[in-house]
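Report of the visiting student (M.T.), summer placement. My assignment was to run the structure pipeline on a short list of targets and document each run. The first record concerns DUF4349 domain-containing protein.
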Amino acid sequence: MNFSLPLPRKSALFMSALLGGVVFTSCAAQNNLSTKSLPPLAEQNQAAPAADITGNVAQKVEAAPVPRARPQLIKKAAMKIVVNSVEQSIDAVAQIIAKQQGDLIGLNERQPTKENSRHTASIQLRVPQNLLEPTLEELAKLGTIESRNITAEDVGDRLVDFQARLTNLRKTEANLQKIMDRAGSVRDVLSVAQELSQVRQSIEQIDAQLKNLQNQVAYSTITLNLEAAVSSASPQRAVGSQIQETWNKSTQSLGGFTIGLLKLGIWLIVYTPYLLILAAGVYGVIRWRRTHRPQETRN
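After the run finished, the structure tokens were exported:
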């Protein structure tokens, strides 16, 4: 009985030590597994912000507005201004146009010819399109605006069409030139040359239309009508000018009358033989009647 008691104690100690080792080993294995599984989680955590950034960039790209082409406009303006002096206003308009780098392309001035009529002028101007508004503001300072009108026409589609047609025609011209260089017979050369001439003529026409359209877009036209504020009576001329005008008219009348008499004399000279024959016939009839009247009276 004394030897049997220590054995169970040793076995219990051994079993407890064995269980402790197993538990320690399992804990170590779990720690290793947890440490090995951390990098994928970190990669996922790092990949998530990258995906968010990519998504935000894509959203910004999708939300960004598409840039629109600048409209190609032909602008025209018309103004009617009442001024104190039309002549001074014309000089002021010339200065404004020179300042705004424009051109005066037409002037029609009408002086008062009747009583109570007004001095007027119509001016055609051309200025760069970006200076149209400043020019109109400067012109408005000349007097009182009665009317003002601005119109715009979008010719962007026509410009694109002309440019596309011009590009295609130039490519056709280059191809025809290559074919002409390779052509062997005279007939083929003449045929290609005719086609090439027609293509070049079309290129010149479209190029001229394109440049004209671009020029109209680059420069705006202004029609300015000036009118005097007060109607002016016809000016009284000096006495000397009136006397001189009367003398000129009288001398012209005298000259015309003299020329008329000379013409009449020439006509009489030309028709003198016929007049003499007519006079002789009338004289003969009168003599015959005088000689036969006494006999009739006697009978």
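The longest strand covers residues 73-83. Confidence is low (pLDDT under 50) at residues 1-15, 22-51, 60-67. I thank the supervising group for their guidance throughout the placement.
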